Amino acid sequence: MGRRKLEMKRIEDKSSRQVTFSKRRSGLIKKARELSILCDVEVALLVFSSHGRLFEFCSGNSLTSVLERYQNHREEEKESKDADAQGSTSENGGKSHAELLQLVQRLVEEPDYEDFNVTDLVELEKDLTIALTQTRNRKVLS
Amino acid sequence: MGRRKLEMKRIEDKSSRQVTFSKRRSGLIKKARELSILCDVEVALLVFSSHGRLFEFCSGNSLTSVLERYQNHREEEKESKDADAQGSTSENGGKSHAELLQLVQRLVEEPDYEDFNVTDLVELEKDLTIALTQTRNRKVLS
DNA sequence: CTGTCTATGTATAATAC
DNA sequence: TGTATTATACATAGACA
């Protein structure tokens, strides 16, 4: 977005890093504001400079209210996870991707694989959904 | 940034609004991530869709830790405001803004003002820097 | 609703002051 | 140290699948 392409790693030169920080920070805040206006959604953004200075943007009245909403959201999320964690193998969300891959592979290669029953399949579906969500999140970030 | 320029107001067509939300949200998260990597700073971003879904980005391990840092920052700020509301010359940062103003005024009006030596000037500079930082913080938060 | 394409509008890295 | 300019890279609106 400038004269040349930047590698995605920490800018080593202190001076350029500072300049880039200043420019990109305002750009980011501008875009956060645009998103909240155009799409009529709540947005909160916090940036701490390396020297501890705080820059923030918030679509509504106060960042505090957004943060409260975040806390509520986390609690609700936790409750719903607890609710269906009854069938889950681990607290934080099903099997590892490697495990899932093996499971799916067995299922595909051996259609009569006898350890599978409806309960297993329901759990498998849930794990795949989680894995899918995680993968999508990573994609957005790359 | 597309075929035509968008007005900065809520997009009325529900479908376009949703599409724009999806695209700009990923763009914003990507840029938040780039800022945190390139400039080696802490960034937290929260977006609530109109249907209450949460999308978030956080540069470190957990949003919680960033939010804690935010809370601390607010407390420190409150303390420093309280401090200079008293017109303090106290521990945490030099002279009151009123005192500084007088000092600078004397310096400007009387170039030969005799009480100034290098040590005083160094201290003055330090005080001005602190005052500047406090003013900037207030500006950012307003 | 998700992905793709592409013309255009924006953001910004480097540079000049 | 900013501030302004410019050349590029990037984001995305609209259209379509």
Shape of chain A: extended
- Record the strand order, biggest sheet of chain A: 1-2
Unreliable spans of chain A are 85-93, 106-116
Count of DSSP strands of chain A: 2
Please indicate the count of domains of chain A. 2
Annotation field: number of helices of chain A: 4
Summarize the structure.
Chain A is mainly alpha-helical and 142 residues long.
What would you say this structure looks like, in words?
Two copies of one chain form a homodimer. Chain A has two domains: 14-60, Transcription factor, MADS-box (SRF-like); 88-141, no CATH class. In chain A, strand 1 (42-48) and strand 2 form a beta hairpin. Chain A has a two-stranded antiparallel sheet with strand order 1-2. Mean pLDDT of chain A is 73; it is low at 85-93 and 106-116. With 142 residues, the first copy, chain A, is mainly alpha-helical. The first copy, chain A, has four helices and two strands, in the order αββααα. Chains A and B meet through helix 1, strand 1, strand 2 and helix 2 of A and helix 1, strand 1, strand 2, helix 2 and helix 4 of B. Strand 1 (42-48) of chain A pairs antiparallel with strand 1 (42-48) of chain B. Chain B binds a DNA duplex (17 and 17 nucleotides) through helix 1.
